[in-house]
Amino acid sequence: MKKLLQLVVIFNFLFIITSCTPKLDIPTPSAGDANFSKPIAIGGDFMAGYQDGALYQKGQKLSIPALLAEQFKLVGGPLFNQALMPDNEGLGLNSKVWESWFVSSSHLGYKTDCEGITSLSPLKSNISVSLATPYLTGIAGNSVQNLAIPFANISDYFNPTFGNAFSSTANKNPYYNRIASYPGVSTIYADAKAQNATFFSAWLGMEDIYNYASSGGTNASIPSSSSFAAYLDTLLGGLTANGAKGVIANIPDFRNFPYYTLVAWDNAELGQAQADSLNDFYTPMGLTHIFFKLGRNGFIVNDANSNGGVRQLHKGEYITLSVPIDSMKCNKYGLLIQTINNRYALDSSEVYLIDQAITTYNSVILQKAAQYHLAMVDMHSYFNSVKAGIKWNGADFNAEFVSGGFYSIDGYHPNQKGYALIANEFIKAINSKYNASIPTFTCIECDGVLFP
User: Domain residues for 272?
Assistant: First the structure.
């Protein structure tokens, strides 16, 4: 009888708790005014799923378009076809082509630096052109729905030679050739239009600006906003011609990426004796505009317009994460004899060009989104929020390198968790514009930065 009374008490308690728990009002998934029966994606690195310095299989499977497609299935979307890399080593373009054309994806591992200190560091392998063959072979035809091509400027979408096989002297991009319907004849734009999509996700203009920025302003130039607008108008006009709807994102500030902020311009921390020694070296050479003091100092960079072709960096200028850090630690790279090559630095004039381009491109994107009745994702504001710090499902994310949880270890591309957060922002914009009810999600299988 005692046990029976206990069970009755427990049952009544559970009944009270259950009856007092509010029911969650989860709306039924709905496509609203959009049609997701045939989605495609266009863009560059971020839409392709490029991360950790390479394009690799799991990154593609959990790319922004692939994650969106999973949610689109709830409102009538189909399977989403991508040209997957054969493994998770993947293939990345090496910015230091004198070492190798290609690299594998980076991972955190233990490395002993020039000072004999062992610590966690991004590790990758060089891949020769001959060994890259498995990654260069793709899926021809017109069945691939993720048409985002890493490092493709918007003009490349209209260039048939962009689909030629990789060549170190001609076409230096290996990625479109893998999916081109007719390599060397077709274009990304034509292949995208031929899909007759009902919905497209687009993030364009990033590469036009960041291909320039990542090279320290030494890689060609940033196309004018009028040129960008003309290409974007043609592309969006073609994709919406049969009534397709879509979503488009704008461009974040480069200062939100660790690639441009991790190595500070004035990170040359000197004692008084070290500063005096450097001044004794430069002053007799007549380079009196270079002066070192106790504490933090600007590194020395190549500058053809300065006395002696060199000068110190100043506030508002940046060093990219591709700079040879070991040489800075042990060989006085950036201080003595070897000054920082301008491919690793953004001077104030280059910063101005980048800022102006982001502002004018974003104005174009906003105008075209309105013209073609597209949902607009304000990635410029969102990346500012990430830098300030955001919380998702109880987890904190920010723009700190490695520890922030948002970026992969190349310092520019988000990791899989970061891409999942971005995909949710796309969903919010789609829901708002098209009166849809597509649920946001938590990506359990998405990796952050993996530690050994």
Answer: 268-346
